[in-house]
Specification:
The complex is a heterotrimer of chains A (335), B (109) and C (463). Chain B has helices at residues 3-6, 12-21, 24-31, 68-77, 94-97, 101-104; one strand at residues 7-9. Chain B is mostly helical and 109 residues long. Chain B folds into 2 domains: 1-38, no CATH class; 43-109, Quinohemoprotein amine dehydrogenase, gamma subunit structural domain (Quinohemoprotein amine dehydrogenase). The model of chain C has no long low-confidence stretch (mean pLDDT 92).
């Protein structure tokens, strides 16, 4: 009898443990909105409580321990969000020292205390505008202080940081490689795009959820393509797509055999043949950001006040979420 | 006193500079390679082809559809072909009155 | 508003002055009043526009709109971009089909056409390979240029024919235009060769230095006899029925410079479509000019420019190549950050199939940057160009002509500085005065309403 009770207690403890395990394997998608970030629980596709932020969210980067998400807002604030507490715990403002700095591109450094950011800057001197040279800088996330920096050409608006090679890929008219391994940041090469008449839109991209690969749609003349920057290997690849498509965002399937891309349509691209194998018009109109669930079974498209969720296999809509804020970017985190 | 008579642009570069001083619209013209004044398409002049050039025979041509989808995205830091609040300089708290354009547009002052 | 002056240069002309915006390449005419105001205010580097008295302030505002004054602290000077050589497609190839010559010109930089090496002819198959390389490496360029050169290229018609044939086949195959030109001393032209040149629409440049006495003084054959009579005897056939431009390429030694005008018109009368005049490169110390000779050269160019101007005002183009090219660039306001295309899409190939950054540097191992088989190495090109330009930036940064000249001819500098051991900058004064002459002619043309004429000129220079 005693044994039996002990057994039952043991079983209950196991159940509790496994239950706790399940609630920890939580998968979240963040919708960077206006004055707030809305959170989707991927297991149910229900909305969780909002995270209030000041300004309009534009880009995000997760700490390695997955406890914090850093979000740029209104292009000059950087919010540190405690994910467990669901709230902003610290905000730094890049407008200081007489300069207004506008952040376009951010990725955390491996130390967790600093980030690489790209910014434009301006100030007024006796009523006249003075424009600073665009800069990629390493900043202290506690104070916003610029620790070291390097000037870059105009046009950069996305950064991907490769920890292995300690190289920043700054995407603008061309891709500028910046070596940060030494004391000073230094240019380490250019992947030319402008001279090839490549027109790139690096606004809806996220290497972290994409096996470490930043995937950016481009156009040459009438032909679309996908530029991939693999932050694991440092390899930059241009993949022309043989069918016409108009897209903002792009993301690989988990097996990296397919890519999903979106704007007014959702496209499925077979990467081996570089052709579009399936496409659906989005009923609510233009969408910006594309995200999948970690298992690749669902596709999330962000467009204005709606998020449309597709079954990745059939491209059937499984759910439409009406959001309380418009937004531009979706990010995913598995806890 | 007519400045025109005092300073006269001679070569093509000088004409382009003069046009730049004449205002933003003229600057677009000056920077064009030639021909008619062209409407820039896309988010900014950097991304000037391919995006937001709705290729279908549907309205709004050359824009997101519905246009409202683009409104707040471009109110922040981007280009939009109509008057909208500028979130980097003049309307810093736009999100407080309007975080969903379809719902809140009446509140924009 | 606190403003600072943007780098500019002033040239006095009738009723006022021409103001050149150094970094922009802009040219403005300003009247006497503006010129006075400028000279009163530009003595200090910055000025507070609001403190300037009304009468001058309006003038200075005009100069601000023309970008000669800018808010203090704003970034004005263009930084020299680092070009990614590997990303620049090949657009011009100079092919040395013969490193040999049947003349013995006194001023030859190629040491009798051999470039200091054993006499050698390009194999026809290598010629074909070179042309294929030019087309293959030309990226998205729709037109590429093949310059057939020597030595004397007509000594190796087998290679010339092979190269031209390959160029025609490839342009058909790849849908590209291969523009072919050939530079010759003109002595070996015969009816068959002339027919070939006409049929293939090859632009020909003939090295001819003017009237017989001037030409023969420096261009004798191997036995010491002048070559003028032979060449002019061949010219009639070449000019009659020409399908592409036939230009005279003139090289004059310093003691000949007082006769520039005579040389030009002599060649025009012979029927050349264009005449370009080059002062000789100082391959030997004796060929360096003295101040008086340099003055004579400028006077000669100046006299030709005045005649050019008169003709242009009657909408006629005097085919003085040097000035035409300069005016076209000034018209567009084109600035340069490198002095020439050498290494940036422009390469020479010698008879052994080696790549060099420039045809004038062929034979000098330190400017060899690859082979036809392995291709030109961008790192080697960078190294060769850096060796030619290093240390010049500081000197050039204070020169008003820097965006027009950008350092001058590599070969000329190499000769003066590395071979003759002269201080850098020896030809700068001449270069600046030549640009000034061009600016003055341009301003006068512009102000006399030759707009259509200038537009036609502008089309000659493309970025």
């Amino acid at each position: 009898m005693t044994n039996r009770i002990l057994f039952m207690v043991g079983l209950m403890a196991l159940c509790l443990l496994s239950g706790a395990g399940q609630s920890e394997a939580k998968e979240l998608i963040f919708n960077l909105g206006y004055g707030k970030i809305q959170v989707i629980d991927v297991s149910t596709d229900e909305l969780l409580p909002d995270i209030e932020i000041k300004g309009w969210g534009r880009e995000a980067s997760f700490s390695a321990d997955k406890k914090f998400m850093y979000v740029t807002a209104s292009r000059h604030l950087i919010h540190k969000i405690d994910i467990a507490q669901n709230r902003v715990v610290k905000t730094i403002d890049m407008h200081y020292g007489g300069w207004q700095r506008f952040v376009f591109g951010m990725d955390l450094a491996e130390d967790g205390k600093t980030a690489y950011v790209h910014f434009f800057s301006r100030k007024t001197d006796r009523g006249e505008v003075v424009v600073g040279q665009p800069t990629v800088a390493q900043i202290d996330l506690e104070s916003g202080k610029i620790l070291r920096s390097i000037e870059v050409p105009f046009g950069v608006c996305y950064l991907a940081y490769a920890k292995n090679s300690q190289t920043i890929y700054a995407v603008g008219l061309d891709v500028y490689l910046i070596d940060v391994s030494g004391k000073e940041m230094k240019t380490a090469g250019i992947h030319s795009m402008f001279d090839k008449k490549m027109n790139i839109l690096p606004l809806f991209s996220y290497a972290a959820e994409n096996n470490g690969v930043a995937l950016l749609p481009y156009w040459i003349g009438e032909a679309p393509g996908l530029l991939s920057i693999d932050t694991n290997t440092g390899k930059i690849t241009e993949t022309p797509i043989k069918n016409p498509m108009m897209v903002y965002g792009a993301l690989y399937s988990p097996d990296m055999k397919k890519a999903y891309a979106n704007m007014d349509e959702l496209y499925v691209i077979d990467l081996a043949s570089q052709t579009i194998t399936n496409t659906e018009v989005v009923p609510t109109g233009t969408t910006f950001s594309v995200m999948t669930s970690a298992d690749g079974k669902k596709i999330y498209l962000q467009g204005g006040p709606t998020i449309t969720i597709y079954d990745a296999e059939s491209l059937k809509i499984v759910k439409t979420l009406e959001m309380s804020t418009d937004g531009m970017l979706l990010r995913r985190l598995t806890l | 006193m007519d400045k025109k008579k005092r300073i006269e642009a001679l070569n093509e570069k000088a004409h382009a500079i003069e046009a730049l001083a004449g205002g933003e619209m003229k600057s677009v013209e000056a920077l064009e390679e030639g021909g008619m004044l062209k409407m820039p398409v896309g988010c900014t002049s950097i991304y000037d082809t391919g995006w937001e050039t709705n290729p279908r025979a549907t309205n709004p041509v050359g824009n997101c559809q519905p246009s409202s989808h683009d409104y707040l995205g471009c109110a922040g830091d981007c280009w939009w072909p109509a008057q909208n609040p500028d979130g980097m300089t003049n309307y810093l708290d736009l999100e407080l009155t309007c975080s969903s354009i379809i719902r809140d547009w009446r509140d924009i002052k | 508003m606190l403003c600072e002056w943007i780098d500019h240069q002033l040239f006095a002309v009738k009723d006022g002055a021409v103001l050149f915006g150094v970094d922009q390449g802009s040219l403005f005419f300003i009247d006497e009043l503006t010129r006075d105001a400028l000279s009163r205010w530009n003595i200090r580097p910055t000025l507070e526009l609001d403190d300037v008295p009304m009468a001058d302030r309006e003038i200075l505002e005009g100069l601000r709109d023309a970008r000669f004054l800018a808010p203090s602290g704003a970034r004005h000077r263009l930084e020299t971009p680092e070009f990614d050589i590997a990303a620049i497609p090949l657009s011009t190839m100079v092919l040395e089909v013969a490193q040999d010559c049947n003349l013995a010109c006194s001023y030859c930089y190629a040491q009798g056409g051999s470039y200091g090496r054993a006499v050698r002819l390009l194999e026809p198959e290598t010629a074909r390979q070179a042309v294929r390389k030019l087309v293959d490496d030309s990226g998205d360029k729709e037109t590429v240029t093949l310059v057939i050169f020597g030595g004397e290229p007509l000594l190796n018609m087998a290679a010339v024919t092979a190269a031209v044939e390959e160029a025609h086949n490839l342009s058909r195959e790849k849908g590209k235009r291969v523009f072919v030109s050939l530079t010759t001393n003109g002595t070996l032209l015969n009816p068959d060769i002339i027919e070939f040149l006409h049929q293939k629409r090859i632009a020909v440049a003939v090295s001819l230095d003017g009237p017989a006495d001037l030409h023969d003084a420096n261009r004798p054959d191997l036995n010491g006899y002048g070559s003028y009579t032979t060449i002019t005897g061949n010219l009639t056939g070449l000019l009659q029925g020409a399908t592409a431009a036939v230009a005279a390429r003139v090289t004059l030694t310093p003691e000949q410079w007082p006769r520039i005008e005579e040389v030009f018109f002599h060649l025009l009368e012979l029927g050349f479509h264009e005449v370009g005049i080059a002062p000789v490169s100082p391959v030997r110390r004796e060929l360096l000019p003295n101040a008086e000779q340099e003055e004579a050269l400028l006077q000669g160019f100046s006299a030709l420019s005045r005649i050019f101007l008169k003709a242009a005002q009657a909408n006629r183009l005097l085919p003085f190549t040097n000035l035409i090219d300069l005016l076209a660039r000034l018209h567009l306001g084109q600035t340069k950050s490198v002095s020439c295309g050498a290494g940036y899409g422009y390469l020479a190939v010698d008879t052994e199939g080696g790549f060099y950054v420039c045809h004038r540097l062929v034979g000098d191992e330190s400017f060899r940057v690859g082979t036809l088989d392995e291709g030109a190495d961008p790192a080697e090109i960078r190294r060769a160009l850096d060796s030619l330009t290093c240390g010049k930036q500081e000197m050039c940064s204070s020169c008003w002509a820097r965006t027009l000249c950008s350092g001058g001819c590599h070969y000329e500098n190499h000769l003066r500085e590395n071979q003759l051991g002269l201080a850098p900058g020896g030809s700068c004064d001449f270069i600046r005065r030549w640009f000034q002459l061009g600016i003055e002619v341009y301003a006068e043309l512009r102000r006399s309403g030759a707009d259509e004429f200038l537009q036609r000129l502008g089309k000659r220079v493309k970025c």
